[in-house]
């Protein structure tokens, strides 16, 4: 079973179970979190017992918990991975997000499987293959346009859900197609340990050695933000809207989850044919603002077509919102103009040459109008390059962040209550917004009420006190032959018993998805050969692809069998396009003589040099290079070396 086609799912990230619980309270229909091992965020793991507690919390709202097990695995890791999957299934986890096809060849419990974005799902053919191979949800490549998403939707079965990243950091490479980190540091992005070479400064040179750009963060992307495209994404066929950020802190997850909860609720208001994927309504106790959380400026990337401003070339840091400019330097601080109020503890920054420099406002003082005095928590002599006219940005709004350290959301499930008398006393029947029912009974002798005129109003008031639970009272019906005397203690106990019974009933009624069956006979893979970019790193994965008609299978890059120069990164981001050197841009432009060719270029960072090759038909750039010799000679990552048949020379 997968996400029903008429349900919209807001999927939030969680570094810890505590953050996951807050994500659910702030409106997430599902959360994804790392397990003890094998997740693609090396430092975001969680114990199974903590995930089990999270599952129980989430299932009360019929929200789901997905666990990331999306690294490529060695042969010696398959059995530990299988054992971990069994534990996660027993803990009640709803689905696994995986990359390694070798897992599909193991004897697994019937847990739902989602195809990770690391599977590089860019084409309808690839999506259809995975949909017929046992996956109930597909995480599409971030680079897909609305038109390409719609084509993918048309190619896969109706009961397979499409998931799409709507917010957060962007990897410049197609996910699963980047090996720069392993080539130069031995840290594999496919194994959750990326060194983030894309955030470094580079110098770009043309074929003749001329400098096109000097010391810019040329492979660093702005952050993804699809806030304006949600309705269009729904129309294209997306049903799960994913926020990136398993390394992000609590405040980020609260803010961005709340932001998209409000936006998706607006879409649902205009689409009565669609429904929220989990239960309850979310009340935010703050106003979400995506600009106040870490970002490198925002872009919708390729969703609505290629743009020339997707790069965060100046800095990979969070600059924040512009406040104003420095007006005057003082011995103990500076004066600046700002229409926005400032607070002690605010994080400020300014740019000096090509570097963003930060400072903390120790004391802020309004001087009237829009003029402020700032006393930083360091000596003015240490603020290199700060001068009158420097632009000041704020990347930490202390007062706003403090508000998010407190309870900042409520999530409540509407519940109708019916109180009625029985031959042995009284009964409280409850039915929530999902139709889940429960009841509690009070066995007591009946006594007429001393103040019958207050019986019904008092009873309604007492039964409606659900403030410390996840429920809010809807309709309250009372069916009694006369007014009875009921002590408050008895009513409170009856209400508590009823709520406890309803919570248990909700857990029992949670629609836990099951793994979908693979098509029989197995559908053929779209290609008959696979390069190292297919990330086949164990014999079970090789067995999977062989069973699906692939005859030539190269080993993953981590197997250290690629000694020559290869594509270490494949990206839709093209530096020729960014610097107006694209042949397609030049074609037909007045004043351009002859044919402009996409000649190779070079990227240089310190002692590292990469060659750029341009594939203009699909508008892709390949960053090529070699694995460092000491890494090539080192053991393959993992305890037991694996052997593959090399592709023919």
From TrEMBL:
Question: What are the Peptidase U32 collagenase domain coordinates in residue numbering?
Answer: 393-507
TM helices/strands, residue ranges: none
Q: Which Pfam families match?
A: DUF3656, Peptidase_U32
Q: Which InterPro entries match?
A: Pept_U32_collagenase, Peptidase_U32, RNA/ubiquinone_mod_enzymes
Q: Which domain of life is it from?
A: Bacteria
Q: What PANTHER family does its record include?
A: 23S RRNA 5-HYDROXYCYTIDINE C2501 SYNTHASE, PEPTIDASE U32 FAMILY
Write the protein's name.
U32 family peptidase
Report the source organism: Uliginosibacterium flavum
């Amino acid at each position: 079973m997968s996400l029903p086609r008429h349900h919209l799912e807001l999927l939030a990230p969680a570094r810890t179970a505590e953050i996951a619980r807050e994500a659910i309270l702030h409106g997430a229909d599902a959360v994804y979190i790392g397990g003890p091992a094998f997740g693609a965020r090396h430092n975001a793991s969680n114990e199974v017992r903590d995930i089990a507690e999270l599952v129980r919390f989430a299932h009360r709202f019929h929200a789901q918990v997905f666990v990331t097990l999306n690294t490529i695995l060695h042969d010696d890791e398959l059995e530990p991975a299988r054992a971990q999957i069994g534990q996660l299934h027993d803990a009640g986890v709803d689905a696994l997000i995986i990359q390694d096809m070798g897992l599909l060849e193991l004897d697994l419990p019937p847990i739902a499987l989602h195809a990770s974005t690391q599977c590089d799902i860019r084409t309808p053919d690839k999506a259809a293959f995975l949909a017929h191979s046992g996956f109930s949800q597909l995480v599409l490549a971030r680079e897909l346009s609305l038109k390409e998403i719609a084509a993918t939707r048309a190619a896969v079965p109706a009961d397979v859900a499409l998931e799409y990243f709507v917010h957060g950091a962007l990897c410049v490479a197609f996910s699963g197609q980047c090996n720069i980190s392993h080539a130069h540091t031995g840290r594999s992005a496919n194994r959750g340990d990326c060194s983030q070479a894309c955030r470094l400064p580079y110098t770009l040179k043309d074929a003749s050695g001329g400098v096109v750009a000097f010391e810019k963060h040329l492979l660093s992307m702005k952050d993804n933000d699809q806030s304006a495209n949600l309705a269009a994404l729904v129309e294209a066929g997306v049903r799960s809207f994913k926020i990136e950020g398993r390394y992000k802190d609590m405040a980020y997850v609260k803010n961005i989850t709340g932001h998209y909860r409000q936006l998706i609720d607006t879409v649902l208001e205009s689409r009565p044919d669609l429904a929220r994927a989990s239960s309850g309504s979310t009340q935010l106790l703050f106003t979400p603002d995506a600009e106040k959380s870490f970002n490198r400026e925002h872009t919708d990337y390729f969703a609505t077509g290629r743009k020339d401003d997707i790069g965060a070339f100046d800095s990979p840091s969070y600059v924040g919102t512009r406040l104003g400019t420095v007006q005057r330097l003082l011995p103990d601080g500076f004066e600046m103009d700002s229409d926005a109020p400032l607070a002690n503890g605010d994080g400020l920054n300014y740019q000096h040459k090509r570097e963003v420099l930060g400072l903390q406002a120790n004391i802020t003082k309004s001087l009237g109008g829009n003029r402020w005095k700032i006393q930083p928590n360091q000596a003015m002599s240490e603020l290199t390059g700060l001068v009158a006219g420097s632009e000041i940005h704020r990347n930490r709004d202390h007062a706003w962040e403090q508000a998010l350290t407190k309870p900042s959301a409520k999530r409540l499930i509407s519940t109708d209550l019916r109180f009625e008398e029985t031959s042995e006393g009284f009964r409280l029947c409850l039915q929530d917004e999902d139709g889940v029912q429960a009841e509690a009974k009070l066995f007591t002798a009946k006594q007429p009420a001393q103040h019958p005129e207050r019986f019904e109003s008092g009873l309604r008031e007492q039964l409606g006190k659900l403030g410390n639970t996840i429920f809010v009272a809807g309709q309250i019906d009372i069916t009694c032959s006369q007014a009875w005397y009921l002590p408050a203690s008895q009513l409170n106990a009856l209400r508590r018993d009823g709520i406890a019974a309803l919570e248990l009933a909700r857990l029992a009624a949670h629609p836990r998805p099951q793994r979908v069956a693979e098509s029989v006979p197995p559908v053929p893979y779209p290609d008959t050969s696979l390069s190292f970019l297919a990330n086949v790193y164990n014999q079970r994965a090789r067995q999977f692809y062989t069973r699906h008609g692939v005859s030539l299978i190269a080993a993953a890059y981590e197997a250290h069998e690629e000694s020559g120069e290869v594509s270490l990164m494949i990206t839709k981001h093209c530096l020729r396009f960014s610097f107006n050197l694209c042949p397609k841009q030049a074609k037909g432009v007045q004043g351009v003589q002859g044919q402009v060719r996409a000649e190779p270029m070079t990227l240089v960072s310190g002692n590292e040099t990469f060659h750029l090759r341009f594939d203009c038909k699909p508008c892709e750039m390949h960053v090529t290079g070699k694995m460092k010799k000491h890494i090539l000679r080192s053991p393959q990552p993992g305890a037991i070396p694996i052997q593959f048949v090399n592709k023919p020379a």
